[in-house]
Write a sequence for this structure.
């Protein structure tokens, strides 16, 4: 009897602990939302948790101003175009390579070495290729173009596609492909019409992860996309420099920047573990 | 050439060539640059290892190394412990578990540069969230020590969910029979964790450690937006120093040598864990 009671206490204690942890993790998002709908005059005066309606009258004015700015619209468009083009390029290059690694035998270098080679780029600190890449793009006349950022993000994200898809293809039963081969289908048909379709869930995971990482990329965007190819993260950083601590705009821009990748993370929840561990954990 | 060989190369080569062009080539180019004094207007001047020698005499560079190491060590340790704690809490029946798990996933993909700016408003000393809510007067961003702590806290906020998700997936893969057998021996929860859970989880712990360490060494966005490397150079991590030397002072040669040394530092740490990680992928 006593033990049962103690267990119930520890059960609710555990629940409270989880609530506290989730609250702490969620608080910054709440704070951003609360700041973004506050009148600028009240940014510093509302105390504590700043509950809308109870402590101040919320307004959408900040959102309206920000979204009506041409610069913001262009940055959103740039981010979107770059993310989508990157994901197409990364899948077009990465998925066939993954298929080759999963289905064919390579000798020197071996399949494992090739996989590790693709993976090893994730170890590389971006700053190690930043200056050379900047000089290359200057040489090619691609500074401040979307194309340069698409090339760059494709490079960074290729390992995710290769490693996630290699595992996905390896997990498919090989019999289907063999049957198709007997019927006279060629490898390209088999790859496009059978394997890629069966691996669709993993492909979706890879796509979502690539879009989120491309959207979030900042260092190279800062160096290469200064004006015409300015993306959302760089747009944000610039605004803070010139405006100082205008919290309400920081909050609006923070949310504009964060919402797409956070929503993608929620959509891709099932695959995040597999994706971020580069296929090592099934999750 | 065998027909199959041509097909498999046709599948693999585009990606491999791409990596050679845009990763391997820039890396080699960077290594070459690090041996030169690169000037904008006149031809580059070969200086041998002078940039590297300069690094070890450069106080700012050496302090960046320490700041980076402290950041990586404290941040990753905290993430792993907190992530494991959360995973253990979630590993037993819990009301609204799915909802909570979703909420904990949110920080993972939040744009790091935006996260830094957001936490700037949270750590803001007059009227920011933390000092306001808890009635504190902590100099989060103006004291060198607190500023580094703040950068670490933000990184922990963003990446604890990653450790949590992987550890939870691993915990749920442990068969109940293990625990039932252990419960026959002892009622001590810590002993079960120490002798059953942890050994079974060991490959995952090493994998998470490896992934987090490599990512943490790349850190740039959060100190850039939260503290701009300051106050002074208190939070200027190595990536940031290399960036500034290159893009603010246009000393491309020295910047490249800093980047190469950062790469060597990461590789040295990874190599010690490499054998274990290979096992995880086999």
């Amino acid at each position: 009897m006593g033990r049962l009671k103690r267990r119930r206490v520890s059960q609710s204690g555990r629940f409270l602990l989880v609530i506290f942890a989730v609250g702490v993790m969620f608080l910054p998002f709440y704070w951003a939302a609360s700041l973004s709908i506050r009148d600028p005059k009240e940014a510093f005066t509302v105390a504590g948790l700043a509950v809308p309606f109870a402590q101040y009258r919320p307004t959408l004015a900040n959102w309206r101003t920000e979204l009506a700015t041409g610069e913001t619209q262009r940055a959103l468009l740039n981010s979107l175009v770059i993310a989508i083009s990157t994901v197409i390029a990364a899948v077009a290059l990465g998925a066939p390579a993954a298929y080759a690694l999963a289905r064919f035998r390579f000798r020197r270098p071996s399949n494992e070495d090739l996989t590790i080679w693709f993976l090893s780029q994730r170890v590389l600190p971006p700053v190690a290729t930043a200056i050379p890449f900047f000089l290359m793009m200057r040489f090619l006349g691609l500074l401040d173009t979307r194309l340069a950022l698409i090339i760059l993000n494709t490079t960074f994200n290729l390992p995710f596609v290769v490693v996630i898809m290699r595992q996905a293809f390896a997990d498919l039963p090989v019999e289907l492909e063999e049957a198709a081969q007997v019927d006279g289908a060629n490898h390209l048909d088999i790859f496009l019409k059978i394997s890629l379709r069966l691996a669709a869930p993993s492909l979706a995971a890879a796509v979502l992860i690539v879009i989120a990482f491309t959207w979030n990329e900042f260092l190279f965007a800062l160096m290469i996309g200064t004006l015409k190819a300015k993306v959302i993260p760089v747009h944000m950083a610039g605004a803070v420099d010139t405006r100082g601590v205008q919290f309400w705009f920081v909050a609006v821009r923070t949310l504009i920047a964060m919402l797409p990748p956070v929503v993608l993370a929620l959509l891709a929840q099932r695959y995040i573990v597999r994706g971020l561990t580069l296929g090592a954990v099934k999750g | 050439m065998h027909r199959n060989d041509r097909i498999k190369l046709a599948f693999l080569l585009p990606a491999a060539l791409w990596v050679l062009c845009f990763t391997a080539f820039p890396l080699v180019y960077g290594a070459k640059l690090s041996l030169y004094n690169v000037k904008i207007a006149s031809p580059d001047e070969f200086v041998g290892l002078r940039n590297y020698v300069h690094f070890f005499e450069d106080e700012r560079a050496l302090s960046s190394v320490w700041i980076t190491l402290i950041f990586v060590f404290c941040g990753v340790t905290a993430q792993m412990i907190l992530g494991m704690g959360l995973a253990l809490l979630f590993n037993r029946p819990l009301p609204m578990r799915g909802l909570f798990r979703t909420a904990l996933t949110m920080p993972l993909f939040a744009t790091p540069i935006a996260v830094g700016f957001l936490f700037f408003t949270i750590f803001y000393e007059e009227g920011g969230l933390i000092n306001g809510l808890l009635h504190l007067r902590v100099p989060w961003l103006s004291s060198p020590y607190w500023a580094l702590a703040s950068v670490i806290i933000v990184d922990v906020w963003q990446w604890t969910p990653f450790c949590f998700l992987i550890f939870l997936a691993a915990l749920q893969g442990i068969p109940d029979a293990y625990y039932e057998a252990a419960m026959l021996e002892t009622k001590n929860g810590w002993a079960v964790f120490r002798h059953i859970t942890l050994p079974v989880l060991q490959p995952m712990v090493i994998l998470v450690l490896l992934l987090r360490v490599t990512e943490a060494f790349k850190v740039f966005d959060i100190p850039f937006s939260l503290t701009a490397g300051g106050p002074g150079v208190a939070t200027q991590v190595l990536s940031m120093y290399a960036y500034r030397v290159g893009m603010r002072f246009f000393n491309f040669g020295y910047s490249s040598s800093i980047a190469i040394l950062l790469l060597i530092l990461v590789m040295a740490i990874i190599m010690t864990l490499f054998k274990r990680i290979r096992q995880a992928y086999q």
Remarks:
- Residues 2-59 of chain A form one domain.
- Chain A touches chain B through 96 residues (CB under 8 Å).
